UniProtKB/TrEMBL annotation:
Domain BFD-like [2Fe-2S]-binding: 2-52
Organism of provenance: Enterovibrio nigricans DSM 22720
Keyword Acetylation: no
Protein name as catalogued: Bacterioferritin-associated ferredoxin
Similarity comment: Belongs to the Bfd family.
PANTHER family: BACTERIOFERRITIN-ASSOCIATED FERREDOXIN
Pfam families hit by this protein: Fer2_BFD (PF04324)
Keywords of this entry: 2Fe-2S, Electron transport, Iron, Iron-sulfur, Metal-binding, Transport
Cofactor: [2Fe-2S] cluster
Molecular-function annotations in GO: 2 iron, 2 sulfur cluster binding; metal ion binding
């Protein structure tokens, strides 16, 4: 689904930027895309999508951290 119709930016693109680049703030997204720079109607929806993407990003990072901690602990045993 297109979030920003003016610039053809989809929800998939926003989620990808959030998950892969850690961009969870609209200001960060605006540095790499023109989102919201024309009519601005997309900004509210984009913020909502980014807020929903945060927990998944945090879960992914916490899973990686947990795996590292477990492997480090195993090295000391
Ligand atoms: S819909 Fe994004 S700037 Fe118009």
């Amino acid at each position: 689904m297109y979030v920003c119709v003016c610039h053809g930016i989809s929800d998939k693109t926003l989620r990808k930027l959030a998950h892969e680049q850690g961009m969870t703030d609209i200001k960060e997204i605006r540095k790499v895309t023109p989102l919201g720079s024309q009519c601005g109607k997309c900004v509210r929806t984009a913020k909502k999508i980014l807020q929903e993407a945060v927990p998944r990003t945090m879960l992914k990072h916490s899973a990686n951290l947990r795996a590292k901690l477990i492997s480090n602990k195993a090295a000391y045993l």
